[in-house]
Amino acid sequence: MEIFKLFGSIFVDTTEADENIEKTGKKSEGLAGKLGGIAKSAGKWALGIGAATVTVASSIGGMAVSTAQDIDKAVDSYIVATGGAQESTEQYQKVLENIYKNNYGESFEDIGDAMSQVIKQMGDMDDQSLQAVTESAYALRDTFEYEIPESTRAAKAMMDNFGVSGEQAMSLIAAGAQNGLDYSGELLDSISEYSVQFGKLGLSADDMFSIFQEGAESGAWNLDKIGDAVKEFSIRAIDGSETTKAGFKALGLNADETAAKFAAGGDTAKEAFQEVVKGLSEMEDPLAQNTAGVNLFGTMWEDLGPEAVAALASISDGAYDAAGAMDQIKEVKYDDLGSMFESLKRSVEMLALPLGEELIPILSELIEAVLPMV
Per residue in 232-246, pLDDT tens? Predict the structure, then answer.
């Protein structure tokens, strides 16, 4: 920007700068003094004298203004996309700056868009949660190529149906991906679609991931089939049909009492589910087992096979091993030399940001003074 040649001269001779500015007319009165003040506050950036000082000052001034402008645009776009309050601009900007300084996202605009996707999919949240979830969404995108709208949609499904926090949901997704649950490319879609069905049976987010894990390790050829089996059973368990009653009876269970347990939901439904699956897995007559399985799971019993369905009985009350999964990804993924250089560059940009925020209104005044003459 040619205008920064003027800023560069400020560091060498503020008098010449004042004279140049004053030539623009009466409207520019007072600008020279303002620019002189900016020169003093930016003096720490002048590394040398003469032409070297001009070059450094011009570069720093340009970078500072460019950074400030990019942040303003990103925050404005975020507010427009989410309907955020204008009076919270500084609050949004702080979150955006923190994410950028932590080396996430490709640009301020990219981060603003990611933040808006998080809010659109997961609803309002406090600043700390918004930053943490957005950074986690970036970690999933950069590690597993999960697009932010898809990962946050899956996280939202777990928040709604299991009552977990956004950060817990993202950690479970990370752990599941690390443990090979996306072997059929359906992890996020399965979470989004079937969380509600697992929730109906009183199962938790940990239970769902444990069932996915057990089903996958026992030979289920895709994750969707496991979710479909749970969905089919959750429907049949309370439909009161003759086939369902026959299935419960084959396991030695009272059909009406068992259906009532499933209808109650919560821990009662979970206990009933474990009782049914355990009973199926322990049946010795393969023909009777197959008949009861089809009555309770429909065609999913045939699609998965008795081994995969029986494996669902092995879930325990323990948490799915997601502890530290997301933290590990973040620590390793952004710890290479290239990331370190990028982090250094961003730190310098953020140091120059206050200078840019001071220069922008003065530039605006200067342009307003010069434009009529042009």
Answer: 999 999 998 999 999
Full DSSP string of 138-165: HHHHHHH---HHHHHHHHHHHHHHH---
CA-CA-CA-CA torsion sign (295, 296, 299, 304): negative
Residue 80 CA, chain-centre distance (Å), reads: 19
pLDDT at res. 75: 86
Q: Could you give the CA distance from residue 33 to residue 38 in angstroms, rounded to a whole number?
A: 9
Range name among 61-70, 140-149, 242-251, 297-306 with the lowest pLDDT average? 61-70
State pTM to two decimals: 0.74
What is the rounded CA–CA span in Å between residue 231 and residue 234?
A: 5
Residue 246: CB atoms within 10 A of its CB come to 14
What does residue 345 show for φ and ψ, rounded to 5 degrees? -60, -45
Q: Which amino acid is located at 148 in the chain?
A: I
DSSP-H helix ranges across 163-222: 166-178, 187-200, 205-217
Amino acid at site 283: M
Task: Considering only the C-alpha atoms of the chain, give the largest distance between any 2 of them, rounded to a whole number of Å.
Answer: 100
